[in-house]
Amino acid sequence: MSVVLSRPKRRRPQWQRLTVAAVDRLTDEAVGVSFAVPAESRGLFDFAAGQHLTLRRESPDGEELRRSYSICSTARLLREEGLLRVGIKQVPEGEFSGYANTGLNPGDEVEVLPPLGSFGGPNAERWRAGEVESRHYAGIVAGSGITPVLSIVTTALETEPESRVTLLFGNRASGTVMFVDELADLKDRFPDRFHLIHVLSREPQASRLLHGRLDPERLTEIFADLVPLDDVDDWYLCGPYGLVTGARQTLLDAGVASGHVHTELFFAEEVPPPPRPENAPQGDTELTVMLDGRSSTVTMGKDEAVLDAALRVRGELPYACKGGVCATCRARLVDGKVHMARNFALDEADLDAGYILTCQSRPETDNLTVDYDA
């Protein structure tokens, strides 16, 4: 996804129980959920703009549900008021998003993993360290893709007094725009540095250019008329697969360097994984799982995902989406070889360092060792 120069050895995050401080209605199908973080836990939940939280609950039929939701607030709000906020849009047949939109109330407790993810890239780490530059950031988002980008935009504007932000925000209609009040507040606070462009697919706009989908053709026209590409330092793309991949390719085709295009996917279900190679190896594999300083071994089939097999012996393993999007199940491949069906979360630096998404990886050797502590 986004480019990260280096990462320190990480400690596996542990589940924490946080109290819901507020549930705010954003649209008919989306809410903002704020969590109260105790003073003694604020260091644990410190985050870089663009990261996400993984939430866990048990469904009425006893199934464990895990979902990842991007943080839309800033680190300043966490430091000063002890609040973390995520945006949750209800999706068809979404058990967790439906619960959040209809059954979650202030005072409820939710199990939460500390922040994960690297969408913000090097810029977010600079802001986190208090380093200031003068840059022009631009975002291309649709629907709930605004959630992490709202944190990025706000952080950039508040941290860097001379930086500018341009945001292309696609939605069906004005009534479906998430965080409309927060965006209006940013416009009022930073009128000369924040340029917000709404593009609506089902509602007429004054300009033909701003009525329709943010597809490559429309983006090319917008770049020519409204957002000169050579004036932007870094791009942040977030939303459905088609939007993100189309926008990224349009930017690359126009000469934007890939290291300056940061991407985040929310859903990849519409993208079928590539088929398993016809000559894929058969038989069993002995899988060794390294977690919390100790190892466990389990026998698995070569048609089974590493994560599913590992969970049989280490049920506390971290995971969330199981779709190759969130990277919660990331581990380093210490020994053996795997076939990774799809990857929307790891960048080249991760892959070069030997990391895999265990939810998408199937063994190709008789012995396999993965390290979740790396």
Short description:
The protein has 374 residues and is α/β, with parallel strands linked by helices.
Describe this entry's structure for a reader:
GO terms for molecular function: 2 iron, 2 sulfur cluster binding; flavin adenine dinucleotide binding; metal ion binding; oxidoreductase activity. Its cofactor is FAD. The protein is an alpha/beta fold and 374 residues long. It folds into three domains: 101 residues, Translation factors (Elongation Factor Tu (Ef-tu), domain 3, Beta Barrel), CATH 2.40.30.10; 145 residues, Rossmann fold (3-Layer(aba) Sandwich); 88 residues, Ubiquitin-like (UB roll). It is 22% helix and 31% strand. Strands 4-3-6-1-2-5 form a six-stranded antiparallel beta sheet. The N terminus is likely disordered.
Features:
374 residues; Rossmann fold; Ubiquitin-like (UB roll); 31% strand; 3 domains; alpha/beta; Elongation Factor Tu (Ef-tu), domain 3; six-stranded antiparallel sheet
CATH topology title of the largest domain: Rossmann fold
CATH superfamily of the largest domain: Nucleotide-binding domain of ferredoxin-NADP reductase (FNR) module
Total beta-strand segments: 18
> What structural category do the secondary elements indicate?
alpha/beta
Identify the CATH class of the largest domain: Alpha Beta
Main-sheet strand order equals 4-3-6-1-2-5
Low-confidence stretches: 1-10
> If classified by CATH, what would the architecture of the largest domain be?
3-Layer(aba) Sandwich
How many domain regions? 3
